[in-house]
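Design review, sub-item: ligand-bound model
Attendees: FS, YL, KQ
YL presented the inputs for the pyridoxal-5'-phosphate complex:
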Amino acid sequence: MPRVSPGERLAAAARERVARDAVRRLRTVSRREGARIEIDGRRLLDFSGNDYLGLAANPAAVAALREAAAAHGVGGVASHLVCGHHAEHAALERELADWLGWPRALVLGSGFAANLAVLQSLLGRDDLCLQDKLNHASLIDGARLAGCALRRYPHGDIETAARLLAAHERGLALLASDGVFSMDGDVAPLRELAALAAREDALLYIDDAHGVGVLGERGRGSVAAAGLGPREVPLLLVTFGKALGGYGAALLGSDALIDHLRQTARPYIYTTATPPALAAAMRANLRAARDDGWRREKLRAHIARFREGAARRGLPLLPSDTPIQPLVLGDNARTLAASAALDAAGFRVAAIRPPSVPEGSARLRITLSAAHAEADIDALLVALAGIVEH
Ligand SMILES: *Cc1c(COP(=O)(O)O)cnc(C)c1O
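KQ shared the predicted structure:
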C-alpha cells in the first residue's frame, strides 16, 4: 500500500464528515446561571447539559472549593501512590462508600479513565467482556485496551447476552452495562443482568454515570432502585460530572477489588491525582445529592410534566423515566435543522448523531434539570411542537 500523506488523510476525513452532515461545531459558553447560558454570545435556555440536580453552582460546593484551594492550593501535585493522595480524597472515598453502601471506593480522574482502568486491570487475553451495544464509548475502548474478547449484545437483549456468555468457557467473564443509557435514558434490566452474572459466575460491573443522584432512595442510583447492592453488583462506577455537578469519578467495590485496582490500574497509577479542592467540593455536592430530596422531587415533576406535554402534542419520545428525554428524528440533516431552529427560538438542545448513536437514529437529546422552572419546560414543549412537525 502506498504511503498516505498526513494532509491528504485529514482532508479526506474532513470531506467525508461534510458529506455525512457529521461535522461537530464547538460552541463557547461565556456565562452560566442555572439553566440559563450565554453561548457564542447568544442567551439560551439550556436543555443539553447533565447537571440534573442543579448542583454545578451549588454555593456550598463553591465555598468548599474556595476554602480548600486557599488551604491546599490548586494542584494535585503527584499521582495518588506517590504523594497526591490527600485527606480530602480519603474522606470523599469513605463518604461515597457509606452513601452508596459498598465497602470501599477509589477516586479517579474521570469516568472515562475509570472504565479504562477497570477493564484493563481485570481482563486479559483469555477473558471475556460482555457488553450492551449501547454502552458508553469508554467501556468499548476499555475492553479494546484490555486485549480481551469483546462481545456485544443487542440493547437489553438478555437472551443473547446469556448465549454469548455461555459460549465463552475460559478465563474471567465480566458483564458491563450502563445503568442508565446516556443517549436513550432507559434503565438497564439490572435484575436480569444480576441473575445472569450469578448463574455464569461473571463479574457484573455497572456504570451508573447517569443514575447516581437521580434514581433510588437518597439518590443511591439505578442499582439501589432495582433493589440490588454489592452482592449482585460487585463493582460500580459513579461519575462526578453529571448529577454531582463537578468533575471526576469513583469506583466502588470490595476491599479485594479496590486493592487490586489501586495496585494495577494504569489510568489510576500513572496520572496526577485530582486537586484536593475538587474533592472537597465533591464532598459538599455528595451531601446535597444525598440529603436534598427536594431536588429529586422537582426533577421528577419536570420529567412527568415534559412527558405529559410531549404526549399531548404527539411528540414521539423514547420510553424513558430519567432526565434524558431523546426525540429520535433519524436523519442527520433533519436533526441538525431542528437543533438550529430551537437555537433560534432560544433553546440549546444538542443534535446527537452517529457515531454517538447508531446510524439512522440521530436525535435531539433533551435533558431536564432541577435548575429548570416549570415555565421553562412548557416553553420548550411549545417550541418543539412548532419545529418537529415539519
Ligand atoms: C459521561 C459518561 C462517562 C464518562 O465520564 P466522565 O467523568 O465524563 O469522563 C462514562 N460512562 C457514561 C455512561 C457516561 O455517560
